[in-house]
Amino acid sequence: MVAVFVVATFIAFILVDGALQWSKARKQKESQSAVPAAAPWALTLTPETVEAPAGLFLDTGHTWVSVDASGRSRIGLDAFAQRVIGRIDQVELPAPGTRVLRGDKLFTVTQGSRKAEFFAPIDGVVSAVNEAAGKDGALVKADPYNRGWLLAVEPSNLSLDIRDLMVADETKGWLRKEIDRFKEFFAAQAVQHMALGHVMQDGGEITAGVLEALDDDSWKRFSADFLGSGAACGANT
Question: What domains sit in the chain, N to C, each tagged with a CATH number?
Answer without folding.
Answer: 47-168+175-227 (2.40.50.100)
